[in-house]
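Dear all,

This email documents one entry for the complex benchmark we are building for the journal club exercise. For each entry we list the sequence lines for every component of the assembly. Then comes the predicted three-dimensional structure of the complex as a token string, followed by one or two observations. Please use this as the template for your own entries, and keep the labels exactly as they appear.
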Amino acid sequence: MTYQAPIREIMFNIEHLPPSPEAGAVGGGIELEDVGAALEALGRFCSDIVAPLSRVGDETGARFEGGETVLPEAYTQAYAQFAEMGWQSLPHPEEFGGMGLPRAAAAAATEILNASDLSFGLCPLLTDGAVEALLLTGSDAQKQTYLERMISGQWSGTMNLTEPQAGSDLGRVRCKAEPAADGTYAVSGTKIFITYGEHGLTENIIHLVLARTPSAPAGPKGLSLFIVPKFLVEEDGSLGRRNAVTCVSLEHKLGVRASPTAVLEYDGATGFLVGEENRGLENMFVMMRAARFAVGVQGVAVSERACQHALQYAQERVQSRPVDGSTKDAAPIIRHPDVQRMLLRMRALTEGGRALAIATAGWLDLAKQGDAEAEDMAEFLVPLVKAFCTERSLEVTSLGVQVHGGMGFIEETGVAQFYRDARILPIYEGTTAIQANDLLGRKVLRDGGATARRFAGMVQETEQALQGGNAQAQAVAKRLGETRQMFESSLKWLLNTAGKDLNAAFGGSVPFLMLTGNLAAAWQLGRSMLAASAKLEQGEDTGFMTRKIATAVFYAQHILVECGAENLRITEGSASLGDAALNL
Amino acid sequence: MTYQAPIREIMFNIEHLPPSPEAGAVGGGIELEDVGAALEALGRFCSDIVAPLSRVGDETGARFEGGETVLPEAYTQAYAQFAEMGWQSLPHPEEFGGMGLPRAAAAAATEILNASDLSFGLCPLLTDGAVEALLLTGSDAQKQTYLERMISGQWSGTMNLTEPQAGSDLGRVRCKAEPAADGTYAVSGTKIFITYGEHGLTENIIHLVLARTPSAPAGPKGLSLFIVPKFLVEEDGSLGRRNAVTCVSLEHKLGVRASPTAVLEYDGATGFLVGEENRGLENMFVMMRAARFAVGVQGVAVSERACQHALQYAQERVQSRPVDGSTKDAAPIIRHPDVQRMLLRMRALTEGGRALAIATAGWLDLAKQGDAEAEDMAEFLVPLVKAFCTERSLEVTSLGVQVHGGMGFIEETGVAQFYRDARILPIYEGTTAIQANDLLGRKVLRDGGATARRFAGMVQETEQALQGGNAQAQAVAKRLGETRQMFESSLKWLLNTAGKDLNAAFGGSVPFLMLTGNLAAAWQLGRSMLAASAKLEQGEDTGFMTRKIATAVFYAQHILVECGAENLRITEGSASLGDAALNL
């Protein structure tokens, strides 16, 4: 199963899609060339070492044997190399041994790693989230104890939120944390769906656990966040006794089968409070935002992988004469118009998602520097990256199967795995509905639509710039403008309706998220088109630039046009949804 | 894994969706009540015996051990009961032991059986197709030899088309048939992807094989159709020697894992020519039309199954407070607006597909009686049933996973299987692109759009009837009218463009099929709405009728609205597709 990291395409995005020219592609004295060199090296490692694991990982799966979690042998070796080469450290602060690269570069690295194998990529992804949470909410002592070895990849991290009765509804978490005399807590309870909750890839696993102290109020405001290491860490930094947290089983899953999804039993395990009591959910949200963004990037990653396989198969598989009669012989199927349509749809959705993700990374970096407007924009964009890119990955991986015809249904071909693997992406780290509620409730209604309108204003600026271009650019500007107006009309309807009928408003939340995500991706492709047109005028890399432009136009004419249906669902479909729901 | 056949809903469709009042719901002296009673009995058998097999069948799979094909033990018993109860005979002529029920009833039976287990349902489905082909193209002697025992379920049938180099492109078939002195043929070659190509459920397997005689011209017009029985049949009807056809392996598949997909090696196997030499493809098309229609019904079937599971889970799973604050406690997730939206979408797509399939069955019956216009309409509708219902089953089964959240990704929950099983439906018996080419090339361009315009005229009649109804009916009429006009505009564009640029026209073939399928389903739901409104006025079964109406309105406002994007893709997206294809 070959994979080539699309470095040229990724670097184009990093260079041209920062929030503004002033924000710059990369900051802190880092050169674009250095980012490119790092990603190329990662790309080689992933092509050579990680990508070949994905089939064997899927076939073998993570197994639970005699009480032990067993991963495919090749995973252990590959992970050791991954850590040794320092790839875990890429986005983290130099203070703790990180490379300190900007988030757009980190997003690209996440894409490359996950494209080569989603199951493998999940371990570093969760570690990144845990590092992020500790950086922002851990004490100095906690940072000293844990961060360096997590950033080096020596230790991994997990998120422990879900319990059997508490999935999307974290207020129902029952896991208990009893304070002990020494300032630690005894953590007890059952956590389920814990990604990489147990494994032997790293020396230690740092679990971040949501639990409830005895005096805590009921509901989500009574949750506290705890560090519960698999092995306790002695004062000198060496590993001490095994903590009272045990893996009792692994799930049998549709996809990402080599990633161990554990049921963890905490039985008075020693935990260390992170931040203040009862503010666990807030603190966990930090980790969740990083993880949600990264899961969105996983959607782009698996889409890219599916694209590469489909394109290769379409170039090689010979079947049927071209419909235009240009030859009497059967031709490679890439000559057939509907195969072209499928491949272009796959590519446009993938490039649109990538552009959205990398642009959002820029806003996240600006936000980190304390820019409040950037913080709002990042908060607005992250649920789009998470939900839009992952929902679209279902379509892209499905088309990837379809391009292969009957061969796509045969597991040995490998593309069915992408279809299975992708299916978790719109579910974990908050389902699409949870993202849509977050978008509508916290990011739109709460500020009366101010951020949403600012977003629309930025889209409009891109429209105006495109209107100054050639006929193709003007056509994209037209579609962007129509869709931006639909966005505004849906926004207005939602703001009006929410005050009167929350059920009606939230019945439109997912259509609104999909409309907004689609518009946001098209907007970034519009910006790509402007950048590519300028380069083309300079005669730079004409093949690549022509392709970027063609993809942006295709996106506007074939994918952005879906927003019309979303807008009608929101603004005219509410009564029929309510009536039909009464008859469910 | 429970399943309840939706008898009330199915019978409503059979009663109210025949092509015209004159055509009648059922013909040939058969009473509607008898059809209902037969389907209820089948429903009980499927709930009790077949549905519980689907999980075990998926887990065990069809295995190839020591040269033998081994199916799950429970399959053998269930199949024996299926045959003994006479279910295979339901749609076939009484002359050969069949029940002679109309095709709408047969479609309903296919749905019920396949909803309970797609893997199990495939064996009878292929037998039905083979029976159909022999009825229409076999000699009297062939009918006498094979039909009775195929219709009784004692013997099964297969379709042998595909070879490694010949999938969609049957002109590349290489399998050879050498004439022998006794009038038989020696058939040699390799066939792949043969569903139920080898198994022990039945005493004999009647393979229908496309092969090429020595004098045959190259390409699709040199194919002949042969009966190649697994065991040769003696003059007295007893089974003779084993024929030279061997299963050499089974595929490892994403889904329908208990259905054996065989590679068959023919090594001078004794074959009997069906119909004339070199007319095999025409003859096979008879079988393919039946099989394509049935595969479309499989799409409805797996959708219905997914709906039932999602609805049940949503009623039971308690998570989060309702957004409207109507209670402070966590509620069953069916109270959340987006879960309602997903469930309604699943239901509307399923009921729309079913209505389209059962209406099409009526046209097929009319066509069989020699009505040429009905034949054209049936030909127009079958690719819609095949492609639209199966493409939509991907969405419905995906939403079924999504409603279950993280539990949906766990194989033991069972709904991931529906997602995997469904994935073959838009591929086998002709991919969606093949259906779209068939629709556009043979059913639209060939008669200059005459049948398509007749179809639009019938939609318009339903619009007019709905305009005489209440506000809801008028709203559906409005959407139907808008969409019918889009259909007409796409049709006009395609007719104009095909003469100049076939690549451009066929680049719009799948969007055109999806637009037309969507409109056709909405049309049938519009007819359902008219029937349900009349019943409601009479006070009959008000709960059911209210629900039918609500579903039709929801469909028009949330699903039919997707046609706008398809229309834009066809009429305005062609240039961008062509440009981008140059840069693939």
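Observations: Chain B has a mean pLDDT of 96. Chain B touches chain A through 92 residues (CB under 8 Å).
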